[in-house]
Amino acid sequence: MNLAANSVYPVQYLNDLKGLKPFADRIKDTEFYPLKSKGAINTLQVNVGKVCNLMCKHCHVEAGPHRTESMTRDTMSQCLKILADNNIPVLDITGGAPELNPHLSWFIKEARQLGCQVMVRTNLTILGTEKYYDLPEFYADHNVEIIASLPCYTEENTDGQRGSGVFLGSIAVLLRLNQLGYGKQDGCLELNLVHNPGGAFLPPPQKTLEAEYRRTLFYQYGIRFNNLYTMTNVPVGGFLDILNDSGNLLRYMQYLASNFNAATVSEVMCRDQISVGWDGQIYDCDFNQMLGLNCSCSHTKDFNVEAFKEREILLGNHCYACTAGAGSSCGGVSISE
User: Fold this and answer.
1) Domain 3-323 maps to which CATH number in 1.25.40, 3.40.50, 3.40.1130, 3.20.20?
2) Where are the domains of the chain?
3) Beta strand 227-230 with 273-276: parallel, antiparallel or unpaired?
4) Consecutive H or E run containing 191
5) What is the pTM of this model?
6) How many CB atoms lie under 10 A from the CB of residue 244?
7) Beta strands 117-122; 145-149: pairing state
8) What is the per-residue pLDDT across 82-138, written as a single tens digit (0 to 9) for each?
9) For residue 235, what is the DSSP state?
10) Is residue 188 classed as helix, strand or coil in its secondary structure?
11) CA–CA separation, 174 vs 182, rounded Å?
């Protein structure tokens, strides 16, 4: 059953799981209920479309070559206005494969002219195709931070999640990025990798896994990178379907709930960022975006930062994924392990 095909039903389905304490009730025991913004907005995260050259089975966006959703230049202009008007220092661009949006280069140039730090979340393989082969040089020329998905440092595990040939294609692109100056510990071009587990369990300790990635990728391929970010699989999109079809949904949710860490609540990413969908709709986070949970400040064209800061963040049981163990965010763990 494709639960993720309907953006409303999965939320109710997750929230009605019998035997699971609702997430909202769990954080009522903390000082952060109701959950609101920290006050300062540090990041504007923009999903520029759901079109992708890959179809990863864990993808919470359910992106792929069959998708057509792509942000227009007009909506990007509205995002740039939000950045400029509110002195937001970081633009975090995601997708799909962001490179498949025809306005990406323009968007990056405009944001850099505003003085913003720009990061692009890439699946790497798209940068190895002929049409997009020049993009790494463009990224380097504009000092774009690259956040690259590499689920594992082994070919078997990466290809198991993302498809045959993905690992070696990713390695080839990483080597090219290194040649351009990305990944040097004392350099200005940041290359950060992202790991997500291959199943229904928490990732290993981030620093321990980073050391293993660093050792294996360097000695086997000569690859260097700056940081590894570990991210917990959130029961949204494709991963929700996997859990449901395998009969593991309740077990996984109970596992996340049993690892709830109150210390992570103050650091969840929804408290200091804005999440924008490809159509300009505004959300508390990327996962609420994929579930269709609009926040009260609904669109980039009429965005009000003060109202956004005062909003009550929408919660659901999927939020257990961001608060289990050391926490999980788009920048890796939330607290020190």
Assistant:
1) 3.20.20
2) 3-323
3) unpaired
4) strand 191-195
5) 0.96
6) 18
7) parallel
8) 999 999 999 999 999 999 999 999 999 999 999 999 999 999 999 999 999 999 999
9) S
10) coil
11) 9
